[in-house]
UniProtKB/TrEMBL annotation:
This is Heat shock factor-binding protein 1. GO terms for cellular component: cytosol; nucleus. InterPro entries: HS1-bd (IPR009643). Belongs to the HSBP1 family. It comes from the Eukaryota. GO terms for molecular function: transcription corepressor activity. One of its GO terms (biological process) is cellular heat acclimation. PANTHER family: HEAT SHOCK FACTOR BINDING PROTEIN 1.
Length: 69
């Protein structure tokens, strides 16, 4: 008689497969989240640049902004 019956082996295999799938899914989600954060950072940088350009077009300078702060 073996140390593990067939049901235990099946359960073991199922759990191992499930853990592997969960790990792969987690890695995929992690990559997606990091990518989205990078995209958001780029968008924020673009918005900041646009706001700065608009302020410069309207005659505001960094010195005037520093005085008002």
């Amino acid at each position: 008689m073996s140390s593990e019956d067939p049901t235990t082996k099946e359960l073991n295999n199922f759990v191992q497969t499930l853990l592997k799938q969960m790990s792969e899914r987690f890695e995929e989600m992690q990559g997606t989240i990091v990518s989205r954060i990078d995209d958001m950072g780029k968008r924020i940088d673009d918005i900041e640049k646009s706001v700065t350009e608009l302020m410069n077009d309207l005659g505001f300078s960094d010195e005037e902004n520093d005085k008002q702060s």
